[in-house]
Every structure is written in structure tokens, then in C-alpha cells.
């Protein structure tokens, strides 16, 4: 990254689940960040999450508790300073629970609601919050899955979309526009029908 | 998953692995009986497909070091040429050798030993490669260069990934003053004139011709010969000179779906070729062109391969020795004009000297064309193979998707040596592609 973009980069080890350490983690950074991007997540196996409470808890903690904890610390710092941008990568899976991944989806739904509340709280304090709902992305998480090419974004597309959203102070972004339409439909299917279909 | 090259012919069902670390890659080499590395899938045919294990190298794409004194860049094989340009052109550096698309990986450029419009002067990609690190069948990594292990170096450049997995390389970039090219276009009414223009332009840094492959009779081989030089600061307008490495980014077109087969027929191709030539004739002379339009005109049309419809396209590219180029090109062009199966993108280029174990170029001329895949054009391609053989020419493996191993052996005595080299290192059963099996490499 340093070579490609002529910027200086420093790496800091971070454990999203060690929420006790988050306050210290932020305090020990060489300088407080101007923009924080939270790209933490764990898909898990839905079947396993249904069987095993511990696995389900790990999915919930990884997608909700951990991200919320670190962003809460950063939000307070940014609020004190009166500036900064927080970007949370949530998921379209959080828009409506589906049989195939509702444990993951429910945690992401919580995270989306958290980001929305945070934005509401900080909008008058000079701190901007961006919620990213990327849809399918070709990452390690989705490797081996049979995803439709037109709905699947490259990680670099997500990065470009985030950079634009930060510059233009967008609140909630989908990356490929088609996802906005898909989610509009999914959101509006009456529950009576939704419960019967498998998507 | 279904996998094909850029020509989308043939399409094969293959298992694809996408390693993100050297360890994973080493495990794959240890556990898979046979495999091939794949870059960005820009070879046209089946060079980078192994149905059992195709290794997608694009995640191994770190840039490791750059020396601004020498212009040497050390990077992993999955880095795209376009990424190198994005990172280094603004610092005044450009690849020394680049093919007609920037969407190739460093590993792919080495494996195919690609050439550019400056081959007559600067040689193939090999010319800018200082060293390569290759993972062998034993999982060991060897660094080779013209000095150290020259045998491996020589066979890896142009070796189509069949000498091991290319992991990293050190390449030299060339310093440039601006992002612009001073392009001079000459209209050549026939093949003789086009070749004379190339011979007269031996000192030009870049030269290439677009050739109207449907013109026949006295117009046979009519071409627009395009010469290019890197523009200096003094060549730019005052506005351009303010930011000499900046070009206005163009809107990318993309072909969202396969076009139906009838869009491309001899009538539309003939009309396009005639119009293109007339338009070029009017625009002869010298003008400034930005690097992206000059080197990569087709990259602006994302997915241009879809113009050829669902059945895909087959490329034909041969090189002919200098003394037999005129006769060979005349015979090839006559055959193509007779079949009326011309392509939009016929390219003629003068090659300079090349001395390597298995790279494609040879001193003389190269002709590249593409055709939609139909029984008729496949038969035409077989005839073009025979004409090439009769004139002592050979074929570019990065473009090939349908040649027979007998044709390859007849065209290139080095094929047997290459096979022997592979055999002696135990590579013949370990690093294989659909192409290497078809061609018995």
C-alpha cells in the first residue's frame, strides 16, 4: 500500500471480540484517525448457529458486539474533537431475516440500527456516519459460493464506493445500484407471503 | 466452475483455487497432481486452464519494493500492469514493454513473454525482467535471471507457465516525461507501402499498423501505420504541461451482453474497415494522444470480446521471417479476403531480433486477427496455419485455442526442446494446461 499510493501505513493488532481492550487500543494509536472504517464480520454456518448456542453467539458478537464496541469508543473521541467520519460495513442480510442466514442477518440488522442511531446522535456534532450495505462481495467469506456475477462486487469496488461516500457525505450506500432495487422489493413483500418463500 | 480465456472459446469445467498466501500455494503444489497458474484470464484460448486445478494468482498481488534510481520494481505475479501504471506513471515511470491491454498480470506477461509496439527496438517483455522467482514441482522457490539459472529464466519467459508457478519478479520501468504519446499516422495504400513504412520507421520507438484485411486486389494490405514517441514536456500545451502525467479519464463503455451473431458479418466488417481506413487517411499527420488511448484502445470497451457473441472468438497471430514476410502476408491476406471473414482488429507489426528458448517473436512481421468461432472460420484458420508453415512462420500461444500439436511441431523446432526441458525437470505431468495437453508440450 505504501508503494502503490505513496502514503505511510502502520499496522496495529486488533481483536474485535476483546471488547475490554478497545478503549486502550484507541488510546494507544499514534494519532487519532480522521476516518474509521469498520470491516469486521463473520458469516458462520447457519445450520451450526441453529444447533449450537455458542457458535450463534460468536456470530452475533463478531457482527454486532465487537464492531459496536470499537465504534462506540471512536464515536466518543470524534464527538469530543467535533470531527471525523465513521464507516460501518453492515449487510443487506440485515434488512430482513431469511431462513438461510438469519443469525448473521439479525446481528447485521442490529449493527445497521446502531449505525443509524449513531448518525442521528452525531449529525449535529460534526461527525459523519456512513452505513455500507454491499451485497455480495468476492471475498474469502463468499469463496466457493455460487454467486450471480452481476450481483457480486469486487472488494475494490466497495473501497471506491466508500471513498466516494465519505467525500460526498452519503448516509447509507449500496454498492451496485441493483441491490437498492432488490432490497426495496424484499422489504415490501408482505410477511404472510415472505414466510413461504425461499430466497 | 466454467472457465475460458478472453476469446471465450473453448469453455471448460475447471476447479479453481484462489490462494492468498505462499503457504496455501505450497500446499496446493504439494497436493494437486497437476496444475497451472492463471493470471487475469487475458490469454485468448486455453493456456491458463487446468480442469483439475487452476490456480488464480490474482490475490498474490503485492508491490514489494521500488528503486527510484534504477526504476526497478519488485512485485508479486498477480499485480496488473494497469496497477503498475496507476502507481508509477504519476512518478514518471512507465512499463518498458506493454501488450495491447493493461489488464494482464505480471506473471501472465512473463509466461507469454508478451510484446508491444516497440518490439523492433526494445524486444519482448523479457527485456525489462531482471529476475523471476518460480515455485517448482517440489514447492521450492528458485530465483532465476540471465546470470543465475539462465536455463530456467530462458524457458520461463514464453514458457506459458509450464516451468513452474511464477511468484515474483523484478522488472525495470522506463522514465517518461509525460503521460502523452506523439502519434504519427501514415496511410499505406497496400502491403508493399505498409512494409516500406515500417522499414523506414526502424528508429521510431513505437510502430504498429491497423490493416484492412478485407481489401483485395491492388488494395490488398492497405493499412494505417501508426508511429509513436513518448512526448516530452515541451510537446505539451501549456494546460497539459501543468499536470504532465494527468489525462482526462474517459468514460468506459462496456458491452453488457453477448451480441447476436448477425451483428458481425462480412458486410458490417467490410463497412467498418473501409470507413476506418478513410477516416484514418484524413487524419494522417502527427498529434498528441494520451497513454491509455494509444496503448490500450480496446480497454476502453470493457468486455469487447462479447461483440463476437456467445460462441466466442478465435485469435490468429503468426510471425513470419523477414525474407518471407511479404510473400507470406500476401498469401494470408488473399486467403482472408477471399473468405470474406475479416476482423475488426487486424494488426500488423514489424518484429525485431529475438533470441529465446520458446518466446513467440522472430525478426520479421507479425499479423494478428480475430474471428468469430464458426465452422467456416475454424476451417479458414486451418488454411492460415498451412500458409504460415509454408513460409517458415510460427504461432503465438497466448492467442491460440485450436492449433494441433502437429502444426506446432512443424512450425517451431524449439517445441521439442521445450518439451525435453520440461521432461528433464519432471514438469510434464505437474504443470499442465488444456493447451499444453492439446499441443503435447
TrEMBL record, chain B:
Transmembrane segments: none annotated. Gene3D superfamilies: 3.30.465.10. It comes from the Bacteria. Keywords: FAD, Flavoprotein, Oxidoreductase. Residues 9-176 form the FAD-binding PCMH-type domain. The keyword Phosphoprotein does not apply. SUPFAM superfamilies: FAD-binding/transporter-associated domain-like (SSF56176). InterPro entries: FAD-bd_PCMH (IPR016166), FAD-bd_PCMH-like_sf (IPR036318), FAD-bd_PCMH_sub2 (IPR016169), FAD-linked_Oxidoreductases_BP (IPR050432), Oxid_FAD_bind_N (IPR006094). Belongs to the oxygen-dependent FAD-linked oxidoreductase family. This is FAD/FMN-containing dehydrogenase. It comes from Ancylobacter polymorphus.
